[in-house]
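#help-structures
NK: newbie question, is this the right format to request a structure? protein is DUF4783 domain-containing protein
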Amino acid sequence: MKKSLLVILGCIVAVAMFSFTFLDNDQQTVINALNTGDANKIVSYFDDVLDIKLPNKDEGKNIGKNQAGMLFKAFYNDNDINNFSLTSQREMGSTMYIAGKLTGKGQGYNITLMLHNRGGKNSIFSVRIN
């Protein structure tokens, strides 16, 4: 009885560790894409609908992935974003938070991304840049 309980507990711990590693890998991939200015990679993590706020633009609520992706890529291209420095990163349950500073054309922008995990897939559901 004790052995089977230990085996079950061990399996649960192993699955949990794998899940956290999976989440960490996605977070790190998004952070690496921010560091290298790879807007396409970031957009690949966009949820089907998301909220997006860009400088000097109205906030868009429940914007489709394609439209939000075009807006995000245009911002990156127009401002020649080429660097990112991470200031904060947290994970609470199935929600992740990444915040930092983007730089391009000698100007800095604060960025906050919110990600969630649905059905084993991480996706960005909120982008705020100011």
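mod (FA): yep, format's fine, and the tokens are attached above. The chain has one domain: 2-129.
NK: thank you!
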